Request: fold
Amino acid sequence: MAAALAERYGAAARAVLFYGSCLRSSELDGQMLDFYLVVSSYRDAYGGSWLATANRLVPPNVFPFAHGGLVAKYAVLSEDDLFQLNGPKTLSVSVWARFAQPSRLVWQADVRAAQLCITAISRAAPTLLEAARPMIEEDRSADPLELWREAFRLTYRSELRAERQGRAASVVDADPERYRRFTEPVLEAASIGRLLADGTVALAPVTDRQRARARVLWARRGRTGKALTVLRLAKASGTYAGGIDYLAWKINRHAGTAIEIKPWQRRWPLLGALILLPRLLKRGAIG
Reply:
């Protein structure tokens, strides 16, 4: 499926990454798979289309894809953006929060493309824990899994998401041994603490000033993340056929709601989604 997706973009395709709930559960039937398509550049991928500008200004672009009886959505990022958005200099948590979780490199154009992906994604987990460290009290640091859970809670609160609050913890609990293995090298890479002989974590001390600055930064991440969610929704109305139906499906699945999309909302998906958004926020279906 990844090879078929890459073939659609010809020489512009550099790598395909598989991630998300289907990877965690190993269940494919009846599910929507999640991929990132990494391209050499947006101009290479789209030519002179407006899609290149949209992908550059508000990355990523998201499209539906079907192959071999399976359905998926895929997000498009350039190699440069994959590297930058997995690092600490971006206010958007979207990419590094996802790639701090498990992913698989399922197709690559060549060895160089694979190495560039590995280098970019290796930045994600250190970025996550370094950003989370000032927000975590010392008495909550002994269990390495709780460190990861709290870090993901912060990222989930920084985006408009259909998942309930417990979703952040379930991401870690789906593969706890993976996060235990990652703890020591990530702590070392982020320079925020060390793993002790008994398997617990000793975090580096944080000053009151560092903690205050982190609160401000996480508030900015939250505002940025929610604004970007709305912008991506607006952009998807022109790139994602059936996008509003997918949005309703995902919210119903994760939030236990029973949203039904009306014909006029399919005809004007952006307007329909924007009208739906305040109701969902009020009901706590997304947050």
Residues 2-123 form a domain with the Beta Polymerase; domain 2 fold (CATH 3.30.460.10). The two ends are 32 Å apart (CA to CA). The mean pLDDT is 85. Strands lie at 13-19, 32-39, 61-67, 70-78, 103-108, 193-195, 201-203.
